[in-house]
Amino acid sequence: MTESANRGQERDRSPVPNADVCVIGAGPAGGLVADSLADEHEVVVLEAGPRFDEADRLERQERAIRPAYDRPDVWEMGGERDAHAASGEWFYPLNHARVKGIGGSTLHWQGMVMRLHEADFNSGTERGVGPDWPIDYADLPPYYVAAERELGVAGGADNPFAPPREQPHPMPAFRPSYSDSLFAEACNELGIAMHSVPNARNSEPYDGRSECVGYGTCQPVCPSGAKYDATVHVESAAEQGATVIDRARVEQLAHDADSIRAATYTTPDGARHRQEADAFVLACGGVEIPRLLFMSDSDQFPDGLANESGLVGKYFMDHLFAGVGGILDEPTRQNHVGFLTSESHQFYDDAGEDIGPFKLEFFNYAGPSPVELALTGEDWGDDLLERLRSEYGNHVAVGALVEQLPREDSYVGLAPERTDDRGNRVPDVHWHVGDRALRTIERANEIQRSILEELGAEVTWTVGPDETGPAYHHMGTTRMGTDPADSVVDPACRTHDLENCWIASSSVFPTGGAMNPTLTIAALALRVADAVDAALR
Amino acid sequence: MELSRRDAVAALAALGIGAGAVGISQVGDSGSEGPPEAELPDDAHVEAVAVAVAEVLYPSAVTGVDEFVSEFLSARLSREGHSDGVREAVATVDDHAQQWHGEQYVNLDDNTRDRVLRELGTDTAEEDPEGTVAERVRYYLVNDLLLALYASPTGGELVGIENPQGHPGGTDTYQRGPQ
């Protein structure tokens, strides 16, 4: 596999004349916006990372399995291009958390796609903490439906805690795993309801892509293409006439008093280009969007573009992981697939001021993968086989995602002195978590432990408040609101300060809930596309 | 438990070489002489040494190692950038066998073959394609062969998993209870 950074030097990466829309970032938000607008408008997409060759996916899978490679190596993250700082109370492993390239972080994501709950849009009113969103759940169902159709979601109607639906998911849910059946007995005794998981993963052939064939390496790479990634929509946009420029690193947004005039970007040959357009959509994620706005400061906007509120970069949030695992004295059949088939959202809407929302996840990949285990250790032959048999086969685990509240002291800024290979200041993720999230992790641990005890498992590990880490969902850094004094974008996701600049990203979430954010990112991106289309007509 | 051609094809799928590439460069007679000094060994010698190494690494319950390794290796050696690493690892093993034990690796008995790998430090080394000699041999030879076995259906079944990670074994097995 030739590193993608060494390919494509010869491509034409010059700007597109007379562009209507310039989309910055080719992940799911940028891909959906570009795909929605490309039929009627001249669209150009600028992506900092490369266009990865689909034929390399099996080799990337090998990297995912072999111990010689770290997670960022799979999709070529790291190095001076991706330098970053983490100055907060909690370290943030940014390059484990994102992929730069056509497809963005959906190239390595898990692919779980739930709708936010109704109360998530009204946290201040319903739970007594955090702001309300300026929009309600009722504003989003048509976009949620469209997003589920676009991504291809396999899901069931068996979740009694989910918000109301208008129609079934596009594909049937994946059937429960054998270990789900073990958990079901214990949960039944405890009065905990389990249900299926909406997956952006084909349970049957869909949209010209294969059904899941069980490679088991979903996160960080799906060689079959059954797991949705945003190359689907970026390529679709290109087929409709959009121009997609990879390895185009946008360094500044040139602007006048109330609008963006051009995106200035550099290409691998060192050339600097200027892409003009009538409308700009920032879709490069909750870290790079504030970074770009800060890098676009000027005499007129000394604190950064679209930052009259002073809130660009503020309120950085992620979801936190909580988990308890153990072993049974019987086979549990783990690691056949790399995705989840059962969850419980039963405790989600118990959330209030002290305890936040959280959801429980029943693992299908608890304990070690025998393949990965075989590549470490000092034994081989019969001794190795004996070790593999003793270490694989009877693990169980229950995970959870937990909400973190927005805090002004949790933010993305620019590192004061460190620059990347182009001389631009690198992002600094200054992450603070807060006590409510830690209390919520403890609450999730209590329930997880009770399930494993009911199951008769010996508990062998716990990820609690002291061991927790991020789920790699970057939210909050350009929050949505009606008042320009306390938000960055308006309810239509257009910046208050610049009339031709929209933001399509979880960076607009005022609060995060505890559901994986990508379906809501996709729904909001489709809504942004409608707004841009209307503005251009 | 016998390794089959299907296992080799499955292993190749997990290792980034499609089934279409399997068998396109069949190796020749395995009875060739060792590599000339300062030259990398040819396909036939690489295969002979790799089979001998696999017989040490694989559990005794496995049969059909020759054909499995041959099938796997023929495609593995066609991968640009990887092939030289495998050949260099084989040359290293052979060179050590010759200098310390006075024989080519393939002519050593099983216990001495095992010793050679341990004398090189490949048992305690962590794989690294750009690391020390031991780390490179661990990466290109020892772990390549272990990965091939345990990402195959037969290797997985030895451990108790019919669809090991890296093998596209479908979405039925995760639903099944123990047989």
Report on the architecture of this protein.
The complex is a heterodimer of chains A (537) and B (179). By secondary structure, chain A is an alpha/beta fold. Chain A has one domain: 3-Layer(bba) Sandwich (FAD/NAD(P)-binding domain). Chain A is 24% helix and 15% strand. Chain A contains twelve helices and 15 strands. In chain A, the strands form four sheets. In chain A, strands 3-2-1-7-15 form a five-stranded parallel beta sheet, covered by helices on one side. Chain A has a five-stranded antiparallel beta sheet with strand order 9-10-11-8-14. In chain A, helix 1 packs parallel to helix 7, helix 5 packs across helix 12 and helix 6 packs across helix 11. The longest helix of chain A has 21 residues. Chain A is globular, with a radius of gyration of 23 Å. The termini of chain A are far apart. The mean pLDDT of chain A is 97. In chain B, helix 2 packs across helix 3 and helix 2 packs across helix 4. About 11% of the residues of chain B have low confidence. Chain B has 179 residues and is mostly helical. Chain B has one domain. The two termini of chain B are 17 Å apart. Chain B is globular, with a radius of gyration of 16 Å. Chains A and B meet through helix 2, helix 9 and helix 10 of A and helix 6 and helix 7 of B.
Number of helices of chain B: 7
**Oligomer designation:** heterodimer
End-to-end separation of chain A: 45 Å
> How many strand segments of chain A?
15
Biggest sheet overview of chain B: none
User: Can you identify the CATH class of chain A?
Assistant: Alpha Beta
Shape of chain A: globular
Total domain modules of chain A: 1
Order of helices and strands of chain A: EHEHHHHHHEEEEEHEEEHHEEEHEEH
**What is the gyration radius of chain B calculated from CA atoms?**
16 Å
Write down the overall geometry of chain B: globular
Helix content of chain B: 40-55%
Strand order in the largest sheet of chain A: 3-2-1-7-15
Task: Give the largest interface.
Answer: A-B, 54 and 49 residues
Secondary-structure arrangement, i.e. CATH architecture of chain A: 3-Layer(bba) Sandwich
Mean pLDDT value of chain A: 97
Structural class of chain A: alpha/beta
Low-confidence segments of chain B, given as residue ranges, are 18-37
Q: Measure the end-to-end span of chain B.
A: 17 Å
- Mean pLDDT across the residues of chain B is 86
